[in-house]
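subagent[fold] <- orchestrator: predict structure for attached chain, return tokens only, no commentary.
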Amino acid sequence: MHSGVLWPSPGFLWQASAGECQELPHGRELTGPWKLLLLGDGSPTRHLQLLTGLPVEVDVIAMASEPGGATGAPAEVAHLAEPLLRRQVWLTCGTQALGWAESWWNQAEAEAHLQDRRLPIWRSLSAGRAELYREVDGFGQVQEPWLAERFGCDGPFWSRHYRFFRQGRELTVIREVFSPALERWLGPAET
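subagent[fold] -> orchestrator:
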């Protein structure tokens, strides 16, 4: 599914800040494994590899200029210096798409840190064992027909967004959407 063109950001059915994780709609509650995936500061690509036992392949959809920010982008994108680039990818293990991600970058930062655009961002940024800080800003659920088609199941789909910092400076804003197929390894998302 390579289009070479950026897709619109998925529309939220609802969203909350990471600090409001106890306030899900309608009294719903996330299970422990899904809280770790959505609100933890670990690497999702590393988690996917550990869960499935398969390497995570990054299928780049597009990486292109993003003048003035995207409609539906997390508010934190406004803190990045322009000109901006946006990158969208599928995260697959074997033949199964388990995640979709988009990231926003200052163009110079992208050129400095994304030498091999097929690598997961975490691997690119941690090359040379450079220290990074990940701050989860928010989470929620999204719904888009193209996500349902690629994941092979209906939504809604759990999503989160976060920032990477190095030496107190924002490097990128990343939004991820996860396939319900992860319930095979994590169990149900909600109690």
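orchestrator: received. Logging for downstream: The radius of gyration is 16 Å. The mean pLDDT is 85.
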